[in-house]
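This part of the workshop introduces the protein records we will be handling. Backbone structure tokens are a discrete shorthand for how the chain folds in space. Once this layout is familiar, the rest of the handout is easier to follow. The record below serves as our worked example for the rest of this section.
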Amino acid sequence: MGYDLHITRATDWAENDGREIPSQEWLELVREDPELSPDPGNGPFAASWATAAASEAGWFDWYEGNVYTTNPTKAAVAKMLALAISLAGRVQGDDGETYEREGDWRDRDL
């Protein structure tokens, strides 16, 4: 079982009615970001994230108005923070905690 981080515009990522990030806005950002690539093999809204260090690469996906990833590295958290700015959102964990800096994330043993 993994721990998800979400980019959301809501106070609580799980209760985002009326504060959703539109899927088309997410897909436009994926197309514009040179580090992101559409990954239709993993779903219509999935995106692979490529970095210079292969160990830091990852993925992001959109679901019900939020963008998320599971068990991110600190580098992926930094990328999420940058994406959140572009999407006028914020990064929030499954338990409702928010992240404002890469250093806020502590790797979890899940």
Q: What stands out?
A: The first strand starts at residue 4 and ends at 8. The two ends are 7 Å apart (CA to CA). The helical segments are 23-32, 74-86.
